[in-house]
Each structure stands twice: as structure tokens, then as C-alpha cells.
């Protein structure tokens, strides 16, 4: 069991499990949490995740002059980037990304489960025209079975984005989802705040958080 847990952590960039992060997780996982508490505290975790995702991108040396006339030998991103959210829950992460980087290019993908086949089906995508030349932060709070994530990754790859240019940013992920993505798309990097214990018989993560989209957008919570 310990070996499997280590392998999963090696496959995913897991945020450091600090006391502060665990306190934020406790707020948003609480079944009695109200939206006024859920949204801002989820946002605080999402910002940490986005920063961790950006850290995986290539940087180059960049010097600037400070107000006191000295040179600071810093860094800047080497490549152009964009964010792509998986509608609807991924829009919560897009909100935080846009606040952090107001000029970033954004795209959207809508994938829903087909009522007959039960498989993920692409219903809509709107992506930057030059997305093949960009590194992509793929945004979706939940990685459960991996079906939706893989369908979204397929859309990006079909538009010319190399696997290794995709960073999948999620709030929670299951061992099953991690394995599914790693098996099909091994070059895609993943960032998460928690690796859950397992999926239950209804494909909900345990201990989980419920339906993130409903809770974030207020369709399942008291105001």
C-alpha cells in the first residue's frame, strides 16, 4: 500500500500538506459549509494550485532595473500560455486564473456523459487559434474516473498541443483517475491539493467534497 501511495505521489505534483492547506480543506469539505465560506476558501486553494502549475513551465533569465538603480537578475516565462477550463466546475478555477493573470488567453471545453453510451462526449470547445504554440493549464477541480479529463486532453492534442505542454490542475483526484491519465497520456503533468482514498460505487471520491460545481455556484447550498 505504501509503495502504491508513493507511486501515485510521484505521478502527481501534490501541494505540500501544510496545516493551513488542511484547514482550508476542512472548510470546503464540510457538508454544512455555506457558499459564502465555500467559494473564497476554495479560491485560496485554487490559487496555490495555479502557482504550482506555473512553476512546472519553462523559465528564462530576465533582468530588470529596480527603483534604486540596481539590476535584479530574475526570470520570466519562456513560452506563451493559456488556460482552458472544463465547463462548468472548471470555470471556478478560470476566475482565479484571470484574477492572477488578467491578460491570459482562455479557452473552454464542454464535455458531458452520453445518456446512452455513458461515455464522455464533447459538446463544445472554443480555444485560442494559436493554442498549438502555447503551454496549457487545463482546469477542472475533480479528477474521478479520468474519463472527462482524458476527453479534454484529447481535444487539446487534436488541436496540436503536445502532451508535454499540458498541465492538468485539479483540486482533488482519485488513485483510479491518476492511473487512467498516466496510462493514456503519460507526458501530461498533474497538480492537485489532495489524492483521495478511492472511488465509491457511484464514482464519488472518498472522503471527497460532493459535487464541486453545485457547491461553488450555489445550486446545492444555502446562500
Automatic annotation (TrEMBL):
Its cofactor is Mg(2+). Residues 16-219 form the Phosphoribosyltransferase domain. Its EC number is 2.4.2.9. Keywords: Allosteric enzyme, Glycosyltransferase, GTP-binding, Nucleotide-binding, Transferase. Pathway: Pyrimidine metabolism; UMP biosynthesis via salvage pathway; UMP from uracil: step 1/1. One of its GO terms (molecular function) is uracil phosphoribosyltransferase activity. InterPro entries: PRTase-like, PRTase_dom. Pfam families: UPRTase. It comes from the Bacteria. SUPFAM superfamilies: PRTase-like. Belongs to the UPRTase family. NCBIfam families: PRK00129.1 (NF001097). This is uracil phosphoribosyltransferase. It comes from Streptomyces naganishii JCM 4654. The gene is upp.
